[in-house]
Predict the 3D structure of the following.
Amino acid sequence: MDGKKLEYKGEEALKELEKLTEKADEVQEKILKEILTRNGGTEYLNKYLGGSTDISSFKHQIPVITYAGIRPYIQRIGNGEDSSLISAHPITEMIISSGTSGGEPKLMPSIAEDLDRRTYLYNLIMPIMNQYVPGLDEGKAMYLYFTKAEMPTPSGLPARPVLTSYYKSKHFKCRPYDPFNDLTSPIEAILCFDSRQSMYCQLLAGLIHRSKVLRLGAVFGSAFLRAITFLERNWAHLCDDIRSGQLSSDVTDSGCRTAISNILTSPDPQLADAIETICGGRGSWKGILGRLWPRAKYIEVVVTGSMAQYIPSLEFYSGRKLPLVCTMYASSECYFGLNLKPLCSPDEVAYTILPNMAYFEFIPLENVVQVGEEGEEEDVAQDKLLDLVNVKLGCYYELVVTTLAGLYRYRIGDVLQVVGFYNRAPQFRFICRRNVILSIDTDKTNEEDLHKSVTIAKKLLEAHDALLVEYTSNADTSSVPGHYVLYWEIVYTSVDVAAPLDERVLQECCSAVEESLDYVYRRCRSYDKSVGPLEIRVVRPGTFEALMDLCIGQGGSINQYKTPRCIKSGSALHLLDSKVDASFFSTRDPTWNP
Ligand code: AMP
């Protein structure tokens, strides 16, 4: 790839985007040729291609793999062997993905130029946004970003989440001032590993600059909601700091203290009073975001895929007045693409895959039925895969990538549907991650099916001024027959609700979930009796935050954190069970017609 092109910004970037998408096929062929020429001598490619750099040999001889296929090479490099096992360019760091394999986080190889590629994608976001929301250069963005401490591999390579790598890079830290990317958060607060201190200081900075803030955001919807809950609990302390002009002594990180001292320069009782009136008033927090940041025009957060469940809560806090903008689709393995119509509603979001990010292939899926646990997926015939420009409108595919950093025909595990084309580049709706999360007998429930059923069932809460804010599940096989357990955290949207929900409402929710699960589940439940009645365990407020803390404490990243939709065992399950307030079972068999 032409390194210079990665630097284009603004109008130039949009023109470049046109060219790239018009010539998507050529760009893809070029990148594959570059990968084969550059990396043909690596142990991995050489084993299959014997030195050939021919595209047709690649397509016939390189197997389609999951993490298990690359793990031995990653481990060897992590233990000190040369990068040339998989990549001609030195592997500079390992990116810790949020996915796990055999209980361990997956590590993805990364080379120096990957940072240029990621930066290129970020640099396209503002030119695209600016087409729809003018004037964003006249104020600031309150984006809450977090970093994690690094864990080096045995050979000393940094291993860290992709966003930690990006925020620590000169591409982010030393970027020239750009009025389109003026963040309220000081870099020192973003780089503070203590997520509590980081959150406190970023919110404080966002409040100090509240009259200048034009947009709000975080990477995923879950992180943004976590910030709002943090604010609910800490606004009084934040007001104290603003009133006195002194940062709380609870913040001990020296970088944070110095950075905040530059913006919290004198007491501002007027600002403190204004925030106190908004946060401490007697009404609910519905629409609070618009009151705290009256000039904000949108909230930038990913709310596609499993993040869609946060939409109602985000809309509650925004009073439905701020569009939820999903800008990009990316992963630790590779950044994929952008939403070119950022103001569309979350259920219409389509990501255009940029053909210069990697070489992309697609496994056609007959329908959206996914079977097989990760690590024991069925083999995919090499010649079944389609190129980026050959996917068909309306069809479902699993995404496969080949990168310059040493992943060859690697299954990302995401299921996508083609919903349009931008020039020759397809646009995809994110459907789900491909794997089964719940199974007791022959039933196999994937994340999307569970999510759909929960989405239907949770509507029953709305009539009772209650909102499902978070959920996860577990296949409980401790008794026979086993059954599905859903952990639900519920909040009340009206200040007047005093009593908990009537048990019949939650029993109905159990039945509604069961009715919406697939045929095999309902057969197992009603005919085979191999699955017991579904149970909802209502957990105390704050439980899912505690779960997040636990996962982050075990090495996860706050930016990339997504609530696991299924908890299999261990401390997380123990934590959930210790917070159960009440439990309810489905009281009737779901409908099943042979
Ligand atoms: P990680 O490797 O931990 O960064 O996670 C990457 C995964 O997060 C992707 O493969 C997707 O499953 C999910 N993801 C990333 N961006 C989006 C998005 N915009 N919409 C839905 N899911 C996403």
User: Anything to note?
Assistant: The chain has 20 helices and 21 strands. Residues 437-585 form one domain. Residues 97-98, 162, 302, 304-305, 326, 329-332, 412, 414, 430, 433, 560 surround adenosine monophosphate (CB under 6 Å). The longest strand covers residues 410-422.
